[in-house]
Amino acid sequence: METRSQPAAREVTSPDAAVLSSVVKRFTNAKGEEFTAVDGLDLRIRRGEVVAFLGPNGAGKTTTIDMLLGLTRPDSGHVELFGRAPQAAVRAGQVAAVLQSGGLLPDLTVEATVRMLGSLHPGADVEQVMARAGITALRHRRVNECSGGEQQRLRFAVALLSNPEFLVLDEPTAGMDVAARREFWATVREDTRRGMTVMFATHYMEEADQFADRVVMVDRGRVVADGSASSLRAAISGRTVSALISPGDAQEVAASPLVRSCTVRGDRHYFDATDSDALLRLLVTRTSATEIEVAPRSLEEAFMVLTHQGRSTAQEGTR
């Protein structure tokens, strides 16, 4: 049988960190029923971007991340990182991940964990990555004695050992307190200034709003919104107008065509306005309203509208 030599590896010059084209991935649930977790997803991430990857439970986020990391393969479509197969990019140390759980040996100390895994990456600076992840003071603590947030910081240190070009973060700050979360993102931002590309999935909308250059929302395995946080907020019309107002006046205002809905929180009424300027004039000239505030729609509101509008109950077993 004729043996063909493999082509020589070529230098990769793709301007993109990651490309997913028409990607489909199906699974079979416990009942033997097939379902589609990722349904023709298209996504392109440019080098140096910080991308928030958002979606409700069952939207296909975890499956997409698994395919990017080479942990599973698409049934159809194409996935590449830096112009090569995900497995090749991972082996080359170009890609690293901080996942929600697993990957740590409970009886090892923090330092022993980092040094053991650092031995797989010649030249890795163990002390530096521990300092960057904020775990130097934990070096002698056993993993099973660390809190959930401390274990996440340990996973972050391990991910930095290969000095990756692309960092994938799946709920990276789960279990961290506010101060630890701020320190974590300060470190990530420092890395992105040096050219690292970051993609993170999170349920903390304020993280996506504050730290992402770009927000990608997925629902039922497809991209439903893609842009800056401000552009996605602007995609849903109207603003929220709140005021201290008498119940009678509030009832009349809520019945106006200028208002989609009204909610009460404590002493304040919140009006979801179709035209905030016109509603503001109405409140000032025709009601007893005081302490009036006008606020743009939040990213969380945009998320609810863009991913749940017309949404049916997710199929059982969808990841």
Automatic annotation (TrEMBL):
Residues 18-245 form the ABC transporter domain. InterPro entries: AAA+_ATPase, ABC_transporter-like_ATP-bd, ABC_transporter-like_CS, ABC_transporter_ATP-binding, P-loop_NTPase. Pfam families: ABC_tran. GO terms for molecular function: ATP binding. It is found in: Cell membrane. It comes from the Bacteria. Keywords: Antibiotic resistance, ATP-binding, Nucleotide-binding, Transport. It is a peripheral membrane protein. This is ABC transporter ATP-binding protein.
